[in-house]
Design goal:
Layout (H helix, E strand, L loop, with lengths): L11 E2 L3 E6 L2 E9 L5 H7 L14 H16 L10 E7 L2 E7 L10 E2 H8 L3 H17 L11 E5 L5 E6 L16 H24 L22
Antiparallel strand pairs: 1-2, 2-3, 3-5, 4-5, 6-7, 7-8
The structure holds adenosine-5'-diphosphate (ADP) and magnesium ion (MG).
Adenosine-5'-diphosphate binds next to strand 2, strand 3 and strand 5.
């Protein structure tokens, strides 16, 4: 059965995908390709040598599903403490959609991105502790990921509003042409250390932008909270 998403309002729009609350289960989200940015558009935007990869290599849904399955095989459920779970594909009126666990706060609202939280509150001690925990987990388990972008990490809070955990919802897998796992562990660890350092650089940049009147860019802002009917 085809799930109808076109009449619904997405709760977020990333660079590549639109995210909807699953119309039949509000604990799940469905991610579909943005109709205004096709796979061919995406490949065209990449330079050499990445544009040599087949079109399917630019499909985030396919890549996310593949990486999730391999992470689960390698780490078991442990990895899902900091990575959203994926449940496979469904047919929608906007193409094939990937179903994943929708990260919500104790209040029921869809969790905000790390970018939004730092923009709103600066880098509080509580947030710093959560970032350090995620960093330790990434480095300790050598989780293969592209750069850790602040809009690809969500901050899940408990019912009291305290930060429970950070969850990476996008950007998993290998950035280069080869899978990270073929490299020696020490090489993988150094790569991850660099990614963590770059993430801290992004946090500093964002902190430096907080005097500006408006949120930088649209990545990282929700279009609705998933509670009130949008
Ligand atoms: N599983 C999820 N739980 C909560 N929010 C999510 C989830 N997946 C995505 N989002 C929100 O949707 C936005 C865009 O999703 P993302 O998967 O990053 O799309 P893209 O691949 O286009 O970058 C994220 O920045 C985040 O705010
Ligand atoms: Mg994203």
């Amino acid at each position: 059965m085809t799930i109808l998403l076109a009449p619904e309002k997405p709760f977020a729009r990333g660079g590549n995908r639109l995210c909807f609350v699953h119309p039949d289960d509000d604990s799940l989200c469905i991610k579909v390709r943005r109709p205004d940015f096709t796979l061919a558009d995406r490949r065209r935007k990449k330079g050499f040598p990445k544009n040599l990869k087949p079109l399917s290599a630019f499909d985030d849904n396919r890549e996310e599903w593949r990486v999730m399955a391999s992470l689960q095989k390698r780490y078991g459920d442990l990895v899902f403490h900091h990575v959203s779970r994926c449940f496979g594909f469904v047919d929608t009126d906007m193409g094939r959609g990937l179903v994943s666990e929708l990260i919500r706060d104790g209040s029921g609202a869809i969790s905000q991105t790390l970018k939004k939280v730092i923009w709103d509150e600066a880098f509080t001690d509580e947030c710093r502790t959560a970032v350090e925990e995620l960093s330790r987990f990434w480095e300790g388990n050598l989780v293969p990921s592209r750069h850790l972008l602040l809009h690809n990490i969500v901050v899940q809070r408990d019912i009291q509003g305290c930060i429970e955990r950070l969850v990476v919802i996008d950007g998993l897998g290998s950035a280069g042409l080869l899978p990270m796992s073929i490299f020696p562990r020490v090489f993988q660890r150094n790569k991850i250390k660099k990614k963590i350092a770059v993430m801290h650089g992004r946090i500093e940049t964002l902190l430096g932008q907080r005097h500006q009147a408006s949120f930088p860019g649209y990545h990282g802002l929700l279009m609705h909270d998933g509670l009130s009917s949008p």
